[in-house]
Every structure is written in structure tokens, then in C-alpha cells.
Amino acid sequence: MALGAAARDAGLVPRFDSADWPPGFEPAFERLLSELADGAAQHDRDGTFPVEAFPKLVALGVPRLTAPHSHGGWNLDLTRARRVVERLGAADPSVALVTVWQLLFLAELAREDHGWPEAARRAVLESVRDQGAWINAVNVEPELGTPARGGLPATRAVRSGPGSWRLNGRKIYATGIPVLRWILLSVTLDDDKGQRSGIVLVDARQPGVRVEETWDHIGLRASGSHDVHFEDVEIPADFVVSDGPSSRPLYDARRQGWACVLVASLYNGIARAARDWLLNYLNHRTPSGLGAPLATLPRFQTAVGQIELQRETSDRLLDDIAAAIDTGTEAEQRKAQAFAPLLKHLVTSNAIAITNAALELTGNPGHSRHNPLERHHRDALTGRIHTPQADFALLNAGRAALVAAAPPASPSNA
């Protein structure tokens, strides 16, 4: 989807020549957020993908926000990227989730040590700049689950010649697939060097890429996270992004830090939308027997105070961790990146708690599908699913703490 002259003339396209928000971006973004929020309930009810939102995001330059300056991007840091995601999350979290992965992978390509083959990097960046292309990684399989917990994918790329591979397999939960141009795919590479894990870049327009519309979940129902089948898809050799343990790990500590902060920001946006709706409701709901708004009752004031504690905790931690990753010393960055999985767990747990408390306070009106609160709660529940899951984050943190506190080994008596 190329940017048209009308969009440029309307002042909607950032010029990306300043460290600040460009002229016109903020009001145009606010208008788009309002449109997204207005349509989110219907897309949730129907389980339909908000395809109409993505040309508008392209017109604003959102797909390029974290891309390098060399390819028309803005090279946005994590602090500002997370704010974009949080505001999108409050409006339409399904749109926000697609945007999370776009910003994450474009930030990866802006790094000097990106580790990608130049042909693959150039193809992605040029298509984002010129056509507003979108990218995501698709890793989960029916049998394997997520590769983050180990194992070789059943999706396999077999060497078919000196310059190409042949790809076959099936992936599930391909978020945003209705608009994706590029798919980063975890595969088992198979050639004369044996079988090993790898990651390939797939052009979703290739023959043999087939989408099966299967997504029908409790939350983020509009995210288009369908199944994708790959049937004899040809992959150029220079689109192998990671080839076994000899390659730089694609999912390194920096990427994990970015991913956890962006995902957590999305769910913090959901919590903020629920909290704002609740405060408006309590200030305007005046039962005839009370003769005053519910907001005047100590019970509701105390419950909202608990919500404010959780919200403020999430806000401050997200800002602090993002700032440390952006501008901290090397030691501060390592510490922030190590804490990021716990941050994601804490913020998503707070979002679930906030939306659940709001439902308890509002009763039937909160549970009604005529109001957004029940949708915010269902969407918040989805935060548990994203890698790293709570048990993984807590296990690693607990193990690290115990190892650090362990007494030194006794000298051998041998």
C-alpha cells in the first residue's frame, strides 16, 4: 500500500527528520485512535480483522516508526514506541498487537549488529518504506507448541539446490496474517549438514502460502491470528535469517527486553481504557435510593484506590525499564533486560486484576456487551499467553536468585 499524494498533502506523513513528534502526527494519531475505539466492539463481536485500520496507520508512518533513518524510518526508541503501543492498546488491542511485532522487528533491523543477511534486510526495509509492508514472526505449531520451550519444529525447510530451500509445514496463531507481507518462521533446516533449528523469512505472497481462518478466541478476537500452511514454498538461500547455533541468536536479551515492554504496554493500555470507563461510570451512576453518584461511597473509593495502585505501579515500571534499556549503562541495560519477563508478568497480571475488579464493582452493566468493560477483561486475559509465560519468567528469576545466594562450594577433601 503505497503512500498517496493526498495523504502527504494532508500532512499525515511524518518527515522523520526530528527527534520529536513531527508536525501533524499527534492530532492525526488521536483521530485514528478514536476511529479504532469506535469500531473495536463490532470487530470483537464478529471476530473480524480491522483491515481498514492498516492503510491509515501506513499513512501516518506507523509501520516505519522504529525503522532506521537510512530507509525512511524514525529509529524510534523503546520509550516512545511503547507509548504508541499503549495508546493503540487502549483503542483497539488487536491492532496494537500487530503493531507490537512490526515495531519490534523494525527496531531489530535498525541495529548495527542485526545479524540478518543483507538481501533479506533490504527486502523488508524497502517494502516497509515504499509499500507500508507489515512483518511478524510465526512460531507456534499444533504438536510442538511454542519453540521457546525447546524442540525442533515440524515445519521443515529442505535444501533444494545451491540457491534455495523448499518449505513445508503448518503454523498456528499467525497474528495479523490478513495484512502481513513478511513472515519470520521458525523451522527445522535439513541439508547435508544435518537437521537443526533455524529461522527463514517468507514472502507471504509466495505461491504455496495458504491461510486457514481458525482464530476464535475469548480475547483479541480481531487479531486475525489464523493458521498458515506452507506447501512447497521456495525460500532463497539469503532469506535464511538464522542457521542453527552458529548464528547470532535472533531472540537475544535486547529483543526480549523490547518484546516484553511492548507487549506489557499493550495490556497496560487495555487496563487504562477499563479504568477510565469505570471512573466515568461511577461518577455518573446515581441510584435513586442513594441520591448521589456511586463515586461518593467509601467502598468504591477504596476499590478505585487499589486500581490506582496497580496502574501507577505498572506505569512507573514500564517507564523505568524502557528508559534503562534506551539510555542506561551496559550494566543497567542488562539488569533491565533480565527483569523484563517479570515486568511483562506483573503488568499483565495488574491489567487482569484491574479489569476484574471493575467488573465486580459494576455488576450487570459491566458484564453487558453493550459496554466495553467485559471486552477489556477478555482482552486482558490474553496477556497470559504471550511468551514468556508466567511460570517461565518466575522459574528463571527464582533460579537466578537462588544461585546468586548459594554458599560457595566446600573445598574438596580429595
What does this structure look like?
- Pfam families: Acyl-CoA_dh_2, Acyl-CoA_dh_M, Acyl-CoA_dh_N.
- This is Acyl-CoA/acyl-ACP dehydrogenase.
- Residues 141-233 form the Acyl-CoA oxidase/dehydrogenase middle domain.
- The protein is an alpha+beta fold.
- It has three domains: 5-132, Butyryl-Coa Dehydrogenase, subunit A, domain 1 (Orthogonal Bundle), CATH 1.10.540.10; 138-246, Butyryl-CoA Dehydrogenase, subunit A, domain 2, CATH 2.40.110.10; 253-403, Butyryl-CoA Dehydrogenase, subunit A, domain 3 (Up-down Bundle).
- It is 49% helix and 14% strand.
- The protein contains twelve helices and eight strands.
- Strands 1, 2, 3, 4, 5, 6, 7 and 8 form an eight-stranded mixed beta sheet that branches.
- Helix 5 runs antiparallel to helix 7 (253-284), helix 7 runs antiparallel to helix 11 (373-381) and helix 8 packs antiparallel against helix 9.
- The longest helix is centred in the last third of the chain and has 33 residues, at 330-362.
- The model is unreliable at 1-19 (pLDDT under 50).
